[in-house]
Amino acid sequence: MATMTYLQAISSALRDEMRADDRVFVMGEDIGVFGGAFKVTDGFFDEFGPERVIDTPLAESAIVGTAIGAAVVGMRPVCEMQFADFISCGFDQLVNVAGKMRYRQGLAVPITVRLPSGGGFSGGPFHSQNPEAWFMHSPGIKVLAPSTAEDAKGLLHAAIRDPNPVCFMEHKHLYRRIKGDVPEGIYETPMTARIARPGSELVVIAYGAMVHVALEATEDLDGASIEVLDLRSLVPLDADAILDSVARCSKVVIVDEANATCAAGAQVAAMIAERGFEDLDGPVVRVASPDVPIPFSPPLEQAVLPSVERVREACRELLAY
Amino acid sequence: MVGYAAPASDRGGIIEDSKSLMLWRRVAVEIPRAARESVRTEIPPRALNEGEAREMATETAEPAVAATPYLELEDRVWLLRSMLLMRGIEERAMSLYRQGKVPGSFYDGYGQEAVSAGAAFAMAPEDRLCVLHRDLAAHIIRGVTPARILAQYMGRDTGITRGRDGNVHFGDWRLGCVGMVSMLPDMMLVATGMAMAFKLRGERRCALTWFGDGSTSRGDFHEAMNWAGVQRLPVVFVLENNQYAYSTPLDKQFAVDPVHHAAAYGFAGVSVDGNDAEAMFEATRAARARALAGEGPTLIEAVTMRMHGHAAHDDMRYVPKEQVEQWRKRDPVDRQDSRLRELGVDVDALRAAVGAEIDAATEEALAAPMPDPRNATADVFAVGEAEPMGDGQAPWSGFARGAVS
Predict the structure, then answer these.
(1) Quick one: pLDDT at residue B66?
(2) Which of A16, B221, B276, B378 is surrounded by the fewest CB atoms within 10 Å?
């Protein structure tokens, strides 16, 4: 075991995979000599050279598209979007070429696209988004969103070793804020949910940075026994774990940092309504960002992103229902 | 009016590289009025630009003269055979479409057969191809059987996509091909990525993809051209200039000659008579040789004409009839047919054999089952280790003899 930040855990997974498998290479904007905007690939250029640590032109469609080409001829590319927001420029390649390839033609596309996502530090409308739901809605793409250092490493190993396109949502606000014990070497974290804290009166379902907001909000909530379920994987979505928590706790709060409409949490709420209705002892409650671009100025941003207070309030109200 | 003089060419209309291309293009020549009139009557109205004027140089070539010394007689027959199969299969599919047996719409490459036949024929088994919708001959050359193609059109379970996708949206990855998506030219980037992998692994292989004149307007064209140029990747880009993107003519698509883009991105660009399979072969062979020698990508502009509507529903009323008639005289299948007849090949027997093959394939495809609806939701995700693409058929004698690697 070693103690690592969330960011170090991601770097560690990438480095281990590149050392273990010649087919793995990384590509993205400013990831080589500069080591990446967030320094995830710091030192990679010196260790692996320019052939496997590729500084690309400023062209996200090309990053995803060429990764697909390399993947179908046997490579295991890992693409970095400098910010998750920029995947909109590579959306077509990911959704139409990569996501549909297996179904249409039987050809596997083992690519990993790393998406530094999320707000909380005045990144503004184009450096703060959580676009995971776009890809949940597109068949053929797996979507992972770890909240801890251990899972960040294990899920990135799993993503790189998966034969499908995988969107790896890494929350920027966790990069250096979250630390944890990380097992040595290569290990794969299953693409299933994890109980971050067991409880029996209410479950808060969250993923990514919101897991930490949920934990803080419910750590001591008038003595109530509150479970926090960390989804970890959005595609595949661990319906069994969700329904199991619902059955035990009967009350559900779902937290998304993303804009509320059609967010991952909306899908979870719909699934619970369809399959867990009999176990509910109150309405499914959602806490999410309203449907506005993420604003820049701190008071505006804080007014939009789900806060510890909002989650706590939502839980209190539901407990009293 | 300022026109441009094409160089006297005995090379099947191939301009060797972008440098010489740029040189001769800078030599603007005032075309006498009488000559302009003759140009106007000789070539289709939409072709009254420098790009069209230079292709006329190829029309003076004797049909039997090979455009390249690299083709044996058997190769030249192969080219005709693949074009005959393409035309015959597509005609049969159109007939099946009219009978209601082909769902959706139907798209063909009538008049453009030489572009895919010639280019695909120059590719080795281990090369990789991303094939566009009017390039059926490429699939045929790589080894996809007519029965599977017809089953594909009819949405049968034995088609290449097993009914998951329609018409020419397919590629048999076991034969080294990836099928297109409708967002054009997305596959330029996929081919560029394949070439990137080949270079990264130090392999002597090449990727090739086709796309149309309309595709030059989209960002993926420019992103792929730029990346391939920056990294000097072993990739061949075949720009299938068939005069129309659906109903949109060239002058609404670009303000420059599209082959000039190659020079802008730092690599070779050639313009070829896309209705001459042997010229297409030779241009692609040379481009592939450049790629394998580490000299980077090539943009090949294949000048041709889409002789049918965009799809079966399109009556093509936006195309002047004279333009179609002029291009009909330059039919790529007829041209190869004439060459081979002059060389003493029994073309009638070849045509009969191809016809019989298509008849048998039609029967087989019509007898094939439709897909099981229970499989509609299967296979969205791959399971287990990803299987890499396989090698295709490469019938060119140059590969068969081992004279070329």
Answers:
(1) 63
(2) B378
Helix (H, G, I), strand (E, B) or coil at A259: strand
Residues A92 and A221 in one domain: no
Q: Is the peptide bond before B125 cis (omega within 30 degrees of 0)?
A: no
Read out DSSP for B114-163?
A: HHHHHHHHT--TTSEEEE-TT-HHHHHHHT--HHHHHHHHTT-TTSTTTT
The catalytic residues of A are: 127
What's the pLDDT at A180? Answer: 98
pLDDT of residue B388: 87
**A309 and A238 in a common domain:** yes
pTM of the model: 0.91
CB–CB contact B196 A93 (8 Å): no
Residue with tokens 């159109």: B94
Residue A124, phi-psi category: left (phi > 0), alpha (psi -120 to 50), beta (remainder): left
Q: Which residues of A130-146 are buried (b: 16+ CB within 10 A; e: fewer)?
A: bbbbbbbebebbbbbbb
Q: Which residue is closest to A49 within chain B, CA to CA?
A: B200
Query: Is this prediction's ipTM beyond 0.85?
Result: yes
In a domain, A189, yes or no: no
Verify whether the Cβ–Cβ distance A70 to B386 is below 8 Å. Answer: no
Contacts for A46 with CB less than 8 Å, ≥ 6 apart: none
Q: A111 and A28, same structural domain?
A: yes
Closest residue by Cα to residue B205 from B16, B391, B14, B401: B391
Encoded tokens for A33: 């000599």
Place of tokens 């630009």: B49
Residue of B nearest to A72 (CA): B388
The range of the structural domain enclosing residue A261 comes to 194-319
- Length of chain B measured in residues: 405
Q: In CATH, what number does B12-29+47-67+108-143+167-341 get?
A: 3.40.50.970
Residue A268 has pLDDT above 60, yes or no: yes
**What letter represents residue A15's amino acid?**
R
**Chain B residues in contact with A72 (beta carbon < 8 A):** 173, 178, 190, 194, 388-389
Beta bridge partners of A259: A289
- We report the CATH number of the domain holding residue A218 as 3.40.50.920
Same domain, A8 and A145: yes
A182, A207, A226: which is the final residue of a domain? A182
Say whether both A148 and A77 belong to one domain. Answer: yes
Taking the C-alpha atoms of residue A271 and residue A250, their distance in angstroms, rounded to an integer, is 15
Is pLDDT of A194 > 90? Answer: yes
**Same-domain status, A282 and A315:** yes
C-alpha distance from B170 to closest chain A C-alpha (Å): 7
Query: Tell me, what's the pLDDT at B65?
Result: 60
Q: For residue A69, give the nearest of B194, B230, B380 by CB distance.
A: B194
Q: Which residue has the higher pLDDT, B40 or A29?
A: A29
Query: Do residues A201 and A148 both lie within one domain?
Result: no
Residue A273 included in any domain: yes
Copy the structure tokens of residue A95.
Answer: 């959704």
Span B142-159, average pLDDT: 98
- Residue after which a domain boundary falls, among A149, A182, A215: A182
Q: Does B192 touch chain A (CB under 8 A)?
A: yes
CATH of the domain at A69: 3.40.50.970
Clarify whether residues A154 and A24 are in a common domain.
Answer: yes
pLDDT of A227 > 80? The answer is yes
Residue B62 has pLDDT above 70, yes or no: no
Indicate whether A211 pLDDT > 70: yes
What's the DSSP call for residue A270? H
